Amino acid sequence: MTALPTEARPIAAWMQVLDQIEGSVGRRLAQVEEPAGPEADAGPTAKTPLQILDERWSQVRTRLDRAERDAAEVDAALHTESEAYQRWTDSLTAARRRLADWAARVA
Q1: At a CB cut-off of 8 Å and minimum separation 6, what does 55 contact?
Q2: Which of the two residues, 32 and 99, has the higher pLDDT score?
Q3: CA-CA distance, 12 to 8, in Å (whole number)?
Q4: Nearest Cα residue to 101 out of 90, 93, 87
Q5: Element of type H or E holding 11
Q6: Average of per-residue pLDDT across 15-35
Q7: What is the phi-psi region of residue 59: left when phi exceeds 0, alpha when psi lies from -120 to 50, beta otherwise?
Q8: Contact status, residue 4 vs residue 12, Cβ threshold 8 Å
Q9: Confidence at residue 3, expressed as pLDDT on a 0 to 100 scale
Q10: Using CA atoms, how far apart are residues 79 and 81, in angstroms rounded to an integer?
Q11: Please, what's the b/e burial string for 80-91 (b: 16 or more CB within 10 A of its CB; e: otherwise)?
């Protein structure tokens, strides 16, 4: 009987281990069913992260546009009220002046 060189024995042992692993994996794969692939008529596919991001960005733009419209409406209302207040203060100033003139004439 011839003895194998010292380096050949560990390599042969590793080859046996790898063969056993390969056999185990092969048997396990044979037991597992293939997952069903997506069907062509399955309907809409799941959205990609980029599509989801685009939709959210569109929603943000829509909300921003709505906020700008609302702000413009409020600004217009405030401007109208500011003009009304200015007319009221102008009329009070004129009334005060007339009252002061009248008081000066009476005194």
Answers
A1: 47
A2: 99
A3: 6
A4: 93
A5: helix 8-31
A6: 86
A7: alpha
A8: yes
A9: 58
A10: 5
A11: eeeeeeeeeeee
Euclidean distance between the first and the last CA atom of the chain, given in angstroms as a whole number: 146
pLDDT, residue 15, reads 87
pLDDT band at 14 (very low <50, low <70, confident <90, very high): confident
Both structure tokens of 1: 């009987």
Collect all residues with Cβ–Cβ distance below 8 Å to 38 and sequence separation of at least 6: 45
From CA 68, how far away is CA 75, in angstroms rounded?
10
Contact 45, 38 (CB under 8 A): yes
DSSP 1: -
Spell out the long-range contacts of 64-71 with Cβ–Cβ below 8 A and sequence spacing 24 or more: none
- Is residue 58 a contact partner of residue 66, using CB atoms and an 8 Å limit? no
pLDDT in tens, 41-59: 555 678 899 999 999 999 9
Q: Give the span between the Cα atoms of 80 and 72, in whole angstroms.
A: 12
